[in-house]
Structures are given as C-alpha cells and as structure tokens.
Amino acid sequence: MYHHASNASQWEFYCTKTIYLRKPAAELRSARTLRTFPQPVHRVNDLLAALLLGILEGLTEFLPISSTGHLLIVQHWLGRQSDLFNIVIQSGAILAIVLVFRERLIRLALGWREPANIDYVMKLGVAFLVTALVGLPVRLLGWELPETVAPVAIALIVGGVLMIAVERFVERRPPSTVVTWNVAVWVGLAQVVAGVFPGTSRSAAAIFVAMLAGLASRPAAAEFAFLVGIPTMFAASAFAVLEYAGNPAAPRENWTALAVAFSAAALTGFLVVRWLMAYVKSKRFTVFAVYRIVLGIALLLFLPNA
Questions:
Q1: Pseudo-torsion of CA 19, 25, 29, 33, nearest 10°?
Q2: CA angle, 129 as apex, 124 and 134 as ends, to 5°?
Q3: Nearest 5°: CA angle at 283, between 163 and 180?
Q4: Contact, 156 vs 293, CB < 8 A?
Q5: pLDDT, tens only, 32-80
Q6: CA–CA separation, 236 vs 61, rounded Å?
Q7: I need a labelling partner for 121 at 20 to 30 A (CA). Which of 37, 50, 200, 260 fits?
Q8: Virtual torsion, Cα 98, 103, 104, 109, nearest 10 deg
C-alpha cells in the first residue's frame, strides 16, 4: 500500500532552499531556531510502482487472462496494495470502457425510443441486476476463495482449457449477434462466479458464457460483456469506497501515486480494449487460453506459497 515517503512518528523530511535534511522528527521539532518548511516528498519507486500497477490493470482487466493472477506476481515483490489504490485503478479501467464505447453509448442514449436500443439497454440492465442481486449477498457472506496462488492458478488453467473447448463448440453454430434474455441472465451469473473464483477473469467469464448461451459472435459477445462491465465495475468500486470510508484505520495514501496509477490504467485500458475489439473480428481467443494455462502452471511451480 502506498504511504507518503515520511513516517510522521519517526522521520520528517525538510527542505531549506537547496539543502534536504533527514532527522528524527522530535529533534527537528525542538530546534526552533532552524528555519525550515515541511515539503511533501514522493519516492521515485512509489511512483514507478504505481505506474507499473496501473499499466498492469489496464492490460489485464479486459483481456481474458485475469488481472488477479498478474497482480499476485507483482505483489510478490511490491507487497499488497491498499483497498483505495485498487479502487482507483479500477476506476481508471471504467473510464477506459466509457471512452472506447462512447459512440455506442451516445447512440443508445439518444435513440432511447427505438425498440432495438430499448431492448439492448434492458438486457444490459438485467445482466447487471442479476450480478447485483446475487453478487451482493455473496460478497457480504464472504463466499469467495482467497487470492492465493493455488486457487488462482487452478482457475487460470481450467479457464484456459474451457476457453479452447467453448470456441470449438461455438464454431459449429451459425454466427449470431442477437442478445437474448438467456444471454443476459447467464452473463450476470458469470460475473458473480468470476468474483467468487479469483483468477477466472470477469471479461473471460462474461464473453464465453455469452457465446455459450447463444451469442455466437466474438465481437458481439465482447461488446456486451464490456458494456455490462461499466455498471458492474462502477457499483463494485462504489461499494469498496463506502467500505474504505467507513474504516477509521484506513492508511494514508500517496495521492500523486494514485493519480499516476489512475491515468496509466485508463490510458492502457483504452488502448487494450480498442485493440481487442479489432482483434476478435478475425481471430480466436486461443492465444489467450494458452497463455492462461502457461501462467497458471508457472505460478504453481515458482510462487506456490505466495
């Protein structure tokens, strides 16, 4: 988690024009004749870590490869991040989706009287409501596996195998871009499953369940999954903010690092989603499935106790 570089109980950093002094806080407070002014100091490694984690979130949140599995690897060296930090980078990811699909969202909003738009928005709403109504009790009851290597690695491997199997099965069907009520309900449930089993990947679960449920078009399934992700991720972030605000023991944060992480997640996520939507028009998800399997095996071999 991120804190200011200084620890108020032990050290304070002070600056006098061009000279920086680092002394125990009590000693500096007692030296009233020393004309110094407190300055915020941000460690370079904090900002670099924030940048790397923001980029990682933007890369892995939308690709069907699980952001949790990758964060496990990074946190092995950087340590676990605060809840607020995770909220911030996820908010950057939400912004990325909104920017990528801004034209689609505007058409849905301006054409709210058109039957096709009404139908699509209602199905987005049903998918979100299913996630909220089933996922909130699950969250409150604590029904989720720990974010440790074994369950995450297994979810990565199993998910990769299922991705290959689902694509081969769906290829036998005629292409379909129609989002049915069945698709909406199953996508909502898939998002809950992804929350219970870390390493599943929300985007992967939503996309492949949509394809299995009848939306046999990779671009259409990906678009629906990403659009459902906007209210889903927004609600999850809002819930986490309330939890953080109600925690008096919440740590102080390095706001500069948070801003860096947010910007990195938003920019990277924007580029990744645009690239992925173009990629799936002509190519399968096989490369991501193989990557998941390899990553899962690597986690079990090299970070078994993380």
A1: -30
A2: 135
A3: 60
A4: yes
A5: 333 333 344 444 478 888 999 999 999 999 999 988 778 777 877 777 7
A6: 14
A7: 200
A8: 90
Across the beta sheet with 11-16, the strand order is: 19-24, 11-16, 37-38
Residue 172 burial (CB count, 10 A): 7
Give the Cα separation of 126 and 182 in Å (integer): 10
Whether the Cβ atoms of residue 187 and residue 206 lie closer than 8 Å to each other: yes
First to last CA, the chain: 17
Nearest-angstrom CA–CA distance, 149 and 69: 8
Other residues' Cβ atoms within 10 Å of the Cβ of residue 24: 11
The Cβ of residue 248 has, within 10 Å, a number of other Cβ atoms equal to: 5
C-beta separation of 272 from 106 below 8 A: no
CA–CA distance, 34 with 63 (Å, rounded to integer):
55
Q: What is the dihedral of CA 195, 196, 201, 207, to 10 degrees?
A: -80
SS (H, E, C) 218-236: HHHHHHHHHHHHHHHHHHH
- How confident is the model over 282-304, as pLDDT tens digits? 999 999 999 999 999 998 998 77
Structure-block tokens of residue 13:
């950093």
> What pLDDT score was predicted for residue 81?
79
Distance CA 238, CA 244 (A): 10
Q: Is the pLDDT of residue 25 over 80?
A: no
CA distance 284 to 272: 16
Quote the DSSP letter at residue 252: P
Determine the angle formed by the axes of helices 149-170 and 202-212, rounding to 10 degrees.
Answer: 30
Mean pLDDT of the residues in the chain: 83
Query: Considering only CA atoms, which of 227, 236, 262, 285 is closest in space to residue 100?
Result: 227
Q: Looking at the chain, how many residues does it have?
A: 306
